[in-house]
Amino acid sequence: MISKSLFGNRLKEKRKFLGLTQAQAAEKAGIERETWGKYERGVFMPSGDVLLSFLNMGIDVSSLFAAEQGIRPSENSEISKEESELLGYYRQASDNGKFVILSVAKGAEKKAAENTQVSATHKTA
Q1: Cα–Cα distance between 120 and 108 in angstroms, integer?
Q2: Which in 46, 93, 97, 118 has the greatest CB count within 10 A?
Q3: Residue 33 burial (CB < 10 Å; 0-12/13-18/19+)?
Q4: Is 65 found in the same domain as 10?
Q5: How far is Cα 59 from Cα 55, in angstroms, rounded to an integer?
């Protein structure tokens, strides 16, 4: 079983990586700031519902538990600063704003795929 203090240290690292204060993180998780602080200090361990809210915040919960066992999370389980920033904008956006963000992302991916196909066609021609 992972120690509460190690869990708390990892949670604090994740919160800081996301650029959140304890109060902001607690609000996003739907808990009191004091409770968040107790998680970080290793006083309490969060319930399953709270862990689910951590996932919804972009925190890789498995890495919080895996750290003590020497298991390194894969590079794909960590999000980059740019991904974190984009996720922050998305979560703060209105429903219409979220639609626009998704539309732009899908359009950019489609355009990139088209450019790849055009580039491959020119190489074979």
Answers
A1: 18
A2: 46
A3: middle
A4: yes
A5: 5
